[in-house]
Amino acid sequence: MGFRKFVAPALVALLGLGLLVALITSAFGKHQRDQADAQAASVVTVRGLVGSEKEAFYRDPRVAAAFKRLGLVIEVQKAGSREIAARTDLKDFDFAHPAGAPAALKLQQVSKASRIYTPFYTPMAVASWRKLLPVLEGNGLVKQRDGAYYIIDMSRLLQMVADGTRWRELKNNSVYDTSRAVLISSTDVRKSNSAAMYLALASYILNGNNIVQADDEIDRILPVAGSLFLKQGFQESSSAGPFDDYVGMGMGKAPLVMVYEAQFLEYQSKQPQPNPDMVLLYPQPTVFTKHVLVPLSANGARVGEALTTDKELQSLAAEYGYRGADASHFKTFLQQKKLFAPAELVDVIDPPTYAVLEKMIVAIGQKFQ
Amino acid sequence: MKLRCYLLGLLAVLLLAGCGDKSAPAGDKAGASAKPGLTVLAGSELKDIEPLLPQIEQATGLHLQLKYAGSLDVIEQLQAGASFDLAWIANNKYALLDPAVRERVKASERTMISPVVLGVKASKAKALGWDKPDRQPTWADIAKVAGAGQFRFAMTNPASSNSGFSAVLGLAAAVAGKGDALETQDINKTALTAFARAQSLTAGSSGWLLDAYVGEQDRLDGIVNYASSLHALNQGGKLHEQLVLVYPKDGVITADYPLMLINPAKRADYDKLVAYLKGAEFQKAMTAQTYRQPLDPTMDAAMPRREYFELAFPAKLAVVDALLDGYQNEFRRPADSTFVIDISGSMGKGGRIEQLRGAIAGLAGSDASLSGRFSRFRARESISVLTFSDVVHEQHTWTLAEQAKDNTAELDQISDFALQLQPGGGTAIYSAAQTAYQNALARQARNPDRVYTLVLMTDGENNNGLTSQQFVQWFASLRPEQRRIRIFAVQFGEASRDELEALTGPSGGRVFDGSKAGLQAAFKEIRGYQ
User: Fold this and answer.
1) Are residues A173 and A45 located together in one domain of the fold?
2) Which of B154, B133, B115 lies closest to B255, judged by CA?
3) Range of the structural domain that residue B26 is part of
4) pLDDT per residue as tens digits for the range A99-141
5) Does the model's ipTM exceed the 0.85 cut?
């Protein structure tokens, strides 16, 4: 009640003041008034459906301020990247920003968007521990080159997982003495893009380094591809889950975790000192998770445009560990935070089409029953 | 919308700041009554968070109303659509395997960490060679020693409580020897049976088990519980001998206390609460208060962290259910359960006899709910029912066979027996309890391997036969080894809580309230203790 008593007269006063100002400006001439009107009218509210991993970015006040400067106020709702294309309420949104190109391309088909934007991307990588490097290197799985660690034999690593090879069976292993099977932990492939990208990568390797296309290829690789997920047991549905395990429970729970490079770098950048025990391994080949923005309205396209052209937004995206077309932002971020990541990844594959990926996911999902 | 809220908030702050002393108390009062409350369905393990609630409220402005329940009960309430804003339990992986629960959980964020491990008496740990952190036994070692009768421990019922469940799952996953997620065909019955044989004290909740362990520590070698609870027990000054924490070498299952959003309308409050709970202020206070580990590995824990392996949690509900069914019906020591049932005239009032009939028939198989399934009479169990009014009636005993499929006829008989019960006459509680106890003692002498318990249900004051005092005196006159059959009581109707506590206390049992949640719920809860 007290508020209203206070607020109402204040509002009246403000309105009065506004009127006065308007009257005065009108006296100053039509030109100035038009300019002011244009500015006020150009701030539009834009609604977006975004993958959960980008929620923090969109809600960052600095990001909001940068958009505001461009006349945009962004309201986001979180949605599973795989679910976005199937939503029936797409008309309520101006854009969608899922993780992973397959989901975005499917959405582009559904929404008939003429142009799409890829403002940033992040490679899939495997978070691991410095202590494990001698074992991984000693077994010819990992090699250091130009300061970065690469998983040079993904094919053998996947085969080990499929065969149920134990850590104890690896040679020169005195640091991880356990009968646990060698596994890369991931999210639930039925729910989350990061696991779907792991599947995209694994399916390529299992298919003799070819993108899976035909049904008979799917049938052939499914037993091994499915076991990569089934053997893990319970999996979290959001990409934060396995990473929380990695950070909070350490090597005993999570020796190898499939993550977005951005996740790892963002975590390290927020520590007073980057944790030297944590290392990121880059699969060779790897696959990018492209964060493709699909406009659903003209205003949605403005968001895509802003993210791809505005320097400040690009620099802010780099602070979340993302790479963009202009590599300088990412480089600056790494330098400022005393982090290391390879400037360029050369051996990068394309994920299969949305339809093929979906088919594989559904088939693996059935094995969980 | 959001902007408007902020502006209003800002105005409120300015207004309050400008109000001066005389209007401040009024403002506070209004603030308190308008404070947003959040209803939280919480696992009973979270009771130790209670002292931190004022701090949470002060920092976030959110008033948490915690309603406690056992782990299985929480899952069942979520399945049934109980309306809570949030749920907060020790481990939600089992819950999330259930599609109905998964549907209701809109978000889930872990808040603290504590592995489920073994607390072993220092001398025993030394004798077994388990006292060195770098030379911990495997689960198979533990099962072997347990099977040989060298290690008797307390553990909760894995079907009703998360700590017992985590230990049994850890054992099963480790001895399966595959190094990845457990599958039904890998469940190793020999190892599980060896382990289960040594479970000498059971309970439906981890907290009650800790108290019961204190009472019976002299005849036990250890206890399965959360590492944090074992630290608290060691610090509590009630132990005759300190417990060494044994982390099985091949791994354990860790509780990570996820806070779950159930009511999507409370998303903003949830986000705010999660941010606070994960923040340094709460995490520091939490580890000091509860001995659990903070989420941030770089933050100091109240007790030094140990390195250990984490075992995989199964991906399939069927695997977990097979393990729990196996534990109940195959692996564990079979139970001998006596039900001493009041069918005096007062049971004819207000649907009481109908509740009683339904509760027993429920245990005999008519209750199809999740908790109903796990509280059913089990294969190999011996069930005795002794009814009484002013006189003690004849006792009926049914012994179930090893195979669940062979028990249909027996279970039907128990159910039929319950359904024909008729109220009438006075109430001779203590004479009935004495007779049933003596009968159980006689069976125990013949067959000492079973887990014996006695449940007394009454709705009134004793007015025939032995008095409460006489029973207590008689009980005290028994030899110590004869006083180990736990007596549980269900307080119903006009029954006297004090007298029932005097009856159950000396045996190490406890009283359950049958009036609030109903007889069926009370009976099901007691099944966790049998």
Assistant:
1) no
2) B115
3) 1-32
4) 999 889 989 998 999 999 999 999 999 999 999 999 999 999 9
5) no
